[in-house]
Design goal:
The chain is α/β, with parallel strands linked by helices. 39% of the residues lie in helices and 12% in strands. It has six helices and seven strands, in the order αβαβαβαβαβαββ. The strands form three sheets. The protein has a three-stranded mixed sheet. Strands 3-5 form a two-stranded parallel sheet. Helix 3 (43-51) crosses helix 5. The chain is globular. 31% of the residues are buried.
Length: 163
Amino acid sequence: MKPGKNFKSWREKLEKQVEPKVVDVPDSWARRIGHGKMLVPTPLLVDKAIRRIRKGRLLTINDIREKLAGDFNADLTCPLTTGIFLVIAAHTAEEDKLAGKKVISPYWRGIKNDGSLNPKFPGGIERQAAYLKQEGFSILKGKGKGALMVKDFNKVRPSGIRA
């Protein structure tokens, strides 16, 4: 799709000028994620974390959230915005690839906490699986209809992120 009057490119969404915030965990969320200080990241912060994942390594969404929380002295990072921003980073990477960029954010190295692939990424789990196979990962049938996951994913995380 071409950017138009009411359409923002994925790059525009990624680079939206917002600041990260550290806030108190809302009471309505505290039962599920605990009390404390929560980082609300920016799309660029999530993209930066993904770009640090070395080839041959993987990070789960929780690994990314823990790294970001640590960077901002927060107890945790917002799971909702982190997931949304990971998808924005993925779509931006594919948009960049279509534009001819050679180096793109390796979003496919970001997996779900159970090792499964993300159907919300561009091209769905099939494209993520193809990228991971190109890097030497073995992909297995996961739990649920059509789900895929990385074999032995815990052996290649969380030391894959560079500080």
